[in-house]
Amino acid sequence: MAKQRPTIRDVALAAGVSGPVVSTVLNNRTESTVRVSPQTRERVERVARELNYTPSILGRSLAQQKSYIVGLLLSAVNSPLAAEVIRGVQDIASPQRYSPMVFIHGNPEEEAAEFERSLDRRVDALIVDTFDTPADAGNVEAYRNLASTGFPLVELFGMSIPDVLRVNVDFEADARRATQHLLELGHRRIGLVVHEHYHKKETHWAGWGFYSGYRAVLEKAGLEPIVIPAPAVTAPGDGLAFIESGRYAGRELLALAERPTAVISYSNRRAYGVVQAFLSEGLKVPEDVSVLGYYERDVAVLTDPPLSSLCVAAREAGQAAAKIAFGIMQRKPVETVAVASEWMPRGSTSALSASQRNTIRP
Amino acid sequence: MAKQRPTIRDVALAAGVSGPVVSTVLNNRTESTVRVSPQTRERVERVARELNYTPSILGRSLAQQKSYIVGLLLSAVNSPLAAEVIRGVQDIASPQRYSPMVFIHGNPEEEAAEFERSLDRRVDALIVDTFDTPADAGNVEAYRNLASTGFPLVELFGMSIPDVLRVNVDFEADARRATQHLLELGHRRIGLVVHEHYHKKETHWAGWGFYSGYRAVLEKAGLEPIVIPAPAVTAPGDGLAFIESGRYAGRELLALAERPTAVISYSNRRAYGVVQAFLSEGLKVPEDVSVLGYYERDVAVLTDPPLSSLCVAAREAGQAAAKIAFGIMQRKPVETVAVASEWMPRGSTSALSASQRNTIRP
DNA sequence: TTGAAAGCGTTACCAT
DNA sequence: ATGGTAACGCTTTCAA
Question: How many Å separate Cα A114 from the centre of its chain?
């Protein structure tokens, strides 16, 4: 039997004041029509502490018609990022008394059901993760409708919902940073392993953005892009297919007449496959070829050597999404944000060596 | 401007009945003092549908003094499992109109703060993940206190909170299954890579349990255990240390006079390290040595060959925890549960070959 | 079989 | 500067 929690009435009674006074005091409400004297204030605060009073969000919610809940509609596909995203949301939401409620789905039908559920829960805002999901048209329409009513709906890791503010990975800036890094290490032949449809800007904006950043930096340096298209992976599954795609790209790369001394790979899983292809040909990483990975954080650590890479800053993304959501709620000006990835220097890249120079241009 | 949602009053008015009738109908309340005729029932249902009415959980919560929220207090350490656990909880909670609210923490102070927050949110139940956290005494005490009031608190992946129902990994059964599998493949020299303190039953119950299951099966088969203690890993961090620990164990194993033809490794990260050690000595997996991993799901897929392993059934664990929580709430008999892991057959184990037989006993 | 009234804990508004 | 009162949307209980 849980002890009966004290209510605002108990505090009011014990402090010899009325309910509203307690409410005003404990919420530090200054611009209220209710003004309280310092003595009263102190007394109320003391009594509240003595009684171990914490206001019930249930009552508050009903009175204010606010749930103080921010919903997170997440795809099971990118589970690995979920915890960090939630944490980011929490970072921003907590100070505003908000808490994240999570709705995870594995397919469009579940997605629709969980979306409904989130509305039934009367979430005050909704962060929708459309990453890696071939967005279902019906669901997108539903999101769009909701957003068009002014409801704070933020898209995360996706570009599926029209006319909605979102948080994206800053593919182009990330690619620039990656390329720049390798340039600074002295590399001049820098390859890019990327989704084979990277040039289809409309549908593969991520790959396109990444490629654009890569090319921009190389062009500025007067160097030629060397793109190695990696086969598309249909089933995201557990990632095996991605690795296989990387192995394939790795072999392609080795077959080039003039082999790059460094490679950037979109997707750390692909990078892992690339490394495997190199190793199985007797090449050493990074001595013979530097490999710089991108995106997923979880894999980067597992190669030998561990992959230097840029990893999605999931927590920051969560924070950014929450900021936008609260911005909309509070009618502050906010806009779509691109979050730069996090630099994880490890052992798979190194400065261009003399022997590499020789190997390349004999 | 979000459209005003219809309230129960709107429905009542439109259907020409009173609020309680609507409430009774829409909740299919049979054992209520309020009985409604089939016609009325149908009319109410129709009107509700027409108005697109969905009851507000805010009002219901206040009236029933139930938040319909199950809290999940998770450690950031095992982020990878978070999404699956949440999903499992969702599986059980949703049909009961409950939703999971997630509270993630990175250290004991945050843990305490998030715990408080969850109580402030008036969660009706709390699932506490103490995995891998050297449980903070103060927090444990707080959990215990709460649980002792009859509050539905369930410990997940840990044994830190006394007198509390929990969901655990079934280490012993898992080890038995793993060992049995290798026996059935014909192996007779089966090694176990496990935390160096595995024999300290009290503090390292996981390792102990796993070892026990392993030994039990071997004994029954009249075989000798071959334990290779892996160095303790202090900083869980990103897992690099675990892999290093596995590499170390792998080298130890290779130095044995009579080398096992198969190894079970507690922790897939360690298994990964073991594989690396083997490969770097020119041994092939599974041709020369079979390697069977355990526990984390995320890594198992990344080795070459991918690791056959038993992986923690996180979603099932979440389900089990939720079931216990609801059981306590509804005063049904429930008890601590051990969840068996999931069998993920992949490429790192194979039947004992003739050549292996020869190598071992020349 | 139904309606009416009270109450859940809080906040907002209007009096004093 | 403070208190009273109504309201939020729903459920529960009692009366009809």
Answer: 20
